[in-house]
């Protein structure tokens, strides 16, 4: 079947299934100027790798849109635009280049060492098992996102940060407001209200931890050292951690189960051998990853695939397209538990900006799938899902499920 021609990534058709459009881009316009969004779209695996690893020519600085968001045409209110510009002036791990990025990464990496994250595995499995047990005990209508994929990472990231349980719902509400502002048609004003609320909460928390440190992640980040972070840097990192820590795992679990619902024979394999959940998580990251694209800024004219990307241009690298590139993957549009070298995917990026929380997201998603396979082997969709309306963030907002055969 011929892939449909690219007409933009924000259409309902592309958001529902962007992969045929990615295929058209890779074949016909691997470096494409989307004039409507004013971004240069890069889609082939080789080129995506080159852009993401070349921070000298493709800068992460100012990578988050303020006035002209290519993913959400709704304008930000004037007051919100002013606040966003001030936020942009703070050094943030996601939107900095070396040497600032090197310092920030070194400062926060100690909170995400393999040993520290591994110590959380028993608690992550306990929370996943408890959530799935509640679904099984209720026995009635359930929703995969509401009942498992969303509360699991919310609970874990809040506990990592030492946030009391009674504030977990606030955490989730603020996170949803921030993410919804990035959706096509989402409320930018609502996003700013969420940002203001969570920033004020974290500012007070940072001040308390500096006076009375504990053993939580925020205390670790606020500890004195050779390269102390400023209060605004600490707050913005906490906000980023909250949002990314919630959304990545929620979307990963929902997308993995969507792929498995469409392939019941593969779900049956995981039910028979829950250890295959690890392979399912890695293949889901490649097949339908939570982050579909990243923004960069060209610092100079760059010729790529015979096309000149001008200096100052915004460049959208399609991680989701790179992960389905037949030049890199055999049978890329198939979901295969036995795929070799699956961890070579770009779902968490590559190079200096490789996702610092990847171990946590993987562990949470694996625990969720294993808990479902053990406790709810007959799990199946009970209705159509509701998908996130974003061309760069991919996952489900709702997925009704039945717990036993119809």
TrEMBL record:
Pfam families: p450 (PF00067). GO terms for molecular function: cholest-4-en-3-one 26-monooxygenase activity; heme binding; iron ion binding; steroid hydroxylase activity. Transmembrane segments: none annotated. One of its GO terms (biological process) is cholesterol catabolic process. Residues 378-406 are annotated as: Disordered. SUPFAM superfamilies: Cytochrome P450 (SSF48264). Keywords: Heme, Iron, Metal-binding, Monooxygenase, Oxidoreductase. InterPro entries: Cyt_P450 (IPR001128), Cyt_P450_B (IPR002397), Cyt_P450_CS (IPR017972), Cyt_P450_sf (IPR036396). PANTHER family: BIOTIN BIOSYNTHESIS CYTOCHROME P450, P450, PUTATIVE (EUROFUNG)-RELATED. Belongs to the cytochrome P450 family. This is Cytochrome P450. It comes from Actinocorallia herbida. The lineage of its organism: Bacteria, Bacillati, Actinomycetota, Actinomycetes, Streptosporangiales.
């Amino acid at each position: 079947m011929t892939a449909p021609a690219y007409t933009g990534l924000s259409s309902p058709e592309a958001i529902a299934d962007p992969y045929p459009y990615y295929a058209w881009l890779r074949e016909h316009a691997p470096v494409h100027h989307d004039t409507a969004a004013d971004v240069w779209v890069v889609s082939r695996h080789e080129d995506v790798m080159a852009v993401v690893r070349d921070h000298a020519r493709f800068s992460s600085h100012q990578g988050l849109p303020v006035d002209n968001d290519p993913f959400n045409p709704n304008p930000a209110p004037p007051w919100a635009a002013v606040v966003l510009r001030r936020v942009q002036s703070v050094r943030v791990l996601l939107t900095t280049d070396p040497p600032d990025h090197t310092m920030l990464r070194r400062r926060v990496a100690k909170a995400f060492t393999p040993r520290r994250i591994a110590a959380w595995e028993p608690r992550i499995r306990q929370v996943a098992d408890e959530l799935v047990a509640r679904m099984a005990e209720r026995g009635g209508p359930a929703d995969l996102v509401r009942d498992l994929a969303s509360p699991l990472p919310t609970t874990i990231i809040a506990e990592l940060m030492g946030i009391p349980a009674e504030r977990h719902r606030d955490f989730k509400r603020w996170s949803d407001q921030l993410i919804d502002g990035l959706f096509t048609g989402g409320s930018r004003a609502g996003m700013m209200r969420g940002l203001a609320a969570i920033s004020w909460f974290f500012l007070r928390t940072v001040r308390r931890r500096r006076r009375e440190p504990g053993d939580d992640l925020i205390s670790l980040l606020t500890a004195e050292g050779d390269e102390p972070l400023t209060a605004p840097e600490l707050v913005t990192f906490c906000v980023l951690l909250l949002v990314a820590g919630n959304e990545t795992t929620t979307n990963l679990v929902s997308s993995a189960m969507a792929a498995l619902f469409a392939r019941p024979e593969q779900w049956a394999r995981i039910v028979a051998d829950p250890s295959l959940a690890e392979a399912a998580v890695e293949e889901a990251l490649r097949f339908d990853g939570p982050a579909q694209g990243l923004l960069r800024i060209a610092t100079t004219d760059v010729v790529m695939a015979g096309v000149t990307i001008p200096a100052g241009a915004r460049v959208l690298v399609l991680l989701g397209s790179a992960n389905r590139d037949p030049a890199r993957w055999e049978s890329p549009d198939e979901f295969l538990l036995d795929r070799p070298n699956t961890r070579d995917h770009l779902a968490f990026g590559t190079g200096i900006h490789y996702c610092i929380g990847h171990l946590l997201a993987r562990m949470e998603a694996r625990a969720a799938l294993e808990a479902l396979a053990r406790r709810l082997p007959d799990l199946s969709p009970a209705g159509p899902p509701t998908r996130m309306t974003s061309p760069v963030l991919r996952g489900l907002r709702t997925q009704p499920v039945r717990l036993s055969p119809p």
